[in-house]
Amino acid sequence: MRTVQSLTAIATSIALLATGAATVAAGTIQGSATYRERIAVPPGAVLEVRLVDISRADAPSITLSSRRYALSTVPVTFELPFDDALIDAGMSYAVQGEILQGERPLFFTDMVYPVLTQGSGDDAELVLVQVAQGEGAGLEGTTWRAFELNGIPLETDKRPEIAFATDGAFGGSSGCNRFSGHAEITADMIAFPEDMAATLMACPQPYDELEHEFFRALPQVSGFQRDGEMLVLVDTAGMAIIRLNLVQ
């Protein structure tokens, strides 16, 4: 009798585990990735695609799912599975992509590709841009205006700007207050100081929150990638913190 009961309990447990497993990773995003440059994919390159939560303007995007594909040519199609239980209809999600050689980024998405909520579907057609090589010293005498912060596009009338002078000196505007300081810049690495000089004028919303997040983001930056008239400030993992366009 006990043997029968034990077998029944085991069978019930297996059935419950199977039912639970069937509810995980129920969603899939499909898409393709390519780039415009007519150059071959280098040997050993991989495509990494990520599903990220970009809902919060006051925090970096959160990766919910990622997958890597070996590359031999582009365009390449991909499928990115995810757990439906992680998705909230009131939040915003996007797909990001990078082509890597080892851990060195060669191409990356410089636009937001929304999916799943806010009227978006479960497909994404990614067009990646090339990471510029050998332009690390090209910041002196340039001014940049931010268009994306922590993965969130900026839609305010005034946006943060930063200008670089010689020997790492920089200054600019948060969209409200002026700031200045001295950054350590070597090749494609950059480090902003924790304490910068800044004016203390009270800022109306949304500029008060935008300024807070911009000043909080700068010390997280450890490197940069310049591609002509676009500048991407990245963290130690190579993730974009701030994206900016060239003003002059």
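the 2nd protein, sequnce then structure:
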Amino acid sequence: MTPLAIPSGLLRQVQLVADDFAAHTGVTVDPVEILTGRAAISDLAPQGQLSAGGATRLLATADGWCALTLSRRDDIAMIPALLQQDSVPDDPWPTVTAWAAATTAGEVADRARLLGLPVAVLGETEPAAPVVSPLGSRLVGTLAGALVVDLSSMWAGPLCGQLLARAGATVVKVESWSRPDGTRAGAAEFFDWMNGGKLSYAMDFDDPGDLAQLLRVADVVIEASRPAALARRGLGPEQAAGRPGQIWLRLTGHGTEGDRAGWVAFGDDAAVSGGLVGYRDGTPVFVGDAIADPLTGLQAAAAVAASRRRGGGELIELSMAAVAAGYRSRDAVCDDVTPVRPAIPSPGRELGADNAVVRRLIAERATPPC
């Protein structure tokens, strides 16, 4: 396996978060496995200004650096509009690189964000602790036996749900029939690592059906869409009117304030936004593999476990860019870390395999005890 360059100080910080999670749950977490597991599965490693996954690039601009991610078909389709050209070559990166070099980082980001592209200006985000707001009444408990509804996809949110499952929670992974978690189409081992042991519930988000009831009876809800997405359907934390002690975890790319609430982010560009990069001869390079994702997933799980212990009744908001910023260091010395292949105790379930089981859970939890 190809070693990953990871700042040594970062590993020490991550161990502290893992220790905090263990103190609340009794579950031991290997930080190296968390940070490098996907790279081990697919033998990934960043190559300077090219991310490990290959979809994100660090681009030199007229006044600094930015990162752009082109991981979706829709992203690539937006490149002619970004460059204000009628068409671009099949490989758009040389043209994008030349355009960025003659443009300020701020202009690159502004234009990309108008088109809904995942982009970041290096170091634009400051470190910030999770934002915790009162949501409802408190009820002290552990994660063992708690019902967790995981509305997230990809990596950060599903990792949080996976860690809560290891702590004894019943985790329901909710997906759309028409647009399931994109990791189902990738390496099966990665999907299984993130989602093994969870129940699979599939639905049509335009006809939510039982979802509103499922949210009301949940002890923990993991949300990783842009904040307005659920609110438009009457499914946000304020509308769900959940159980006593309910914890609503909201994971975003750049936070929920102002324009940032609409900014799209993936793990590599979010890390750049937070300034979490390495330097080679004074030039920024990617570290780790989409490193803002596993950092956020682990920190989110620790935050949920701590909230559960103090009674919950809280909305907890974490921004991937702000989490990444908390680990940055301009003079960081990187270690070559050998990726650790994760242990996968059980495979992920087929889409919608547990719909009947989840409906029974809703009915049981909605019925007052005798």
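The first helix runs from residue 8 to 25. The CA atoms of residues 31 and 228 lie 33 Å apart.
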